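Hi R.,

Here's the chain you asked about this morning:
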Amino acid sequence: MPDQYSGTIRSSAGSTHAYRWRTLSVDRFPALQEEIDALRHSGQLAQTPAFTNYMNDLSFRLPDNFPSARSLLLIATSAPLMIINLRFADRHIPVFMPPNYPFHGLTRAMLLEEIRRTIIPDSGHRVDRVDYHFFMKLAAVRSGLAQYGRNNICYVEGMGSFFSFHAYLTDRVFEEDHWSDLSNLPFCNHCSICIDACPTSAISPDRFVIDVSRCIPLYNELDGDFPDWIPARAHNSIIGCMACQAPCPANRDQMAMAVTAEDIPEADIRRLLEADVSPDLLQSLGEKLKMPYLEKSPEFLTILRRNIRVLV
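And here is the predicted structure, written out as tokens:
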């Protein structure tokens, strides 16, 4: 990707994050919508209620309060993988915290300031963050910002799959519309590492679309009991799953830069499992997991408690 479509930004935590960006004209929205609709009607998608509701909410349309938007700006910001050691019952249990869950100090205001400074420096243009209903992965691949892996996860040059997506609508018309053919990582055609690594057989060698109904994040990101068919050994992350991403050759460099976070001691784990919601515990866990919103999110705290219970 050309250098003019990349940069770095420093977070409030002092960490430096690479970013890459591309744009699409909103005139591409009908074509994107056709692809989403075709996928819905293809019979390839899982029919679980949570995933069906998610897909049904996706649509490429302009919001009622910004009908004059002319471009979609897509940005990927790098984020490190965290490895967290759980200490419990005389055991030292290393688990993952996938890159897109923790808060690394890169605020929305910082990112918008960077956009205003480097991408849309000319004043007078409106720039609104998109926090709803766009299928970000499809738009990113269509813009050339990302490529699909066999595991249906997006990969960005220089970041692997360790990044966060951000999208903005603007009334600026960019000189170049980056519309591209759908693109897969070339070496996926000759690699089966993720297929072999998936503990629930969600990835098939016979078709591109994975079976999301067997994908662990569909269950450990939401409240409720885990299905009996998920083996205990399958759980590997505080939330989400790294089974197919950690061994992926496209993430080799990023895995080497994984950050080891502060251990979570047994005393804190036991308090959490006993449903202790004391402010000091939530602050301690929030700092270690880089999740400062824990004390304000009782629903997520319930999910975290269940996930750590199966890990220990």
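One quick note: The chain is about 30% helix and 15% strand.

Cheers,
M.
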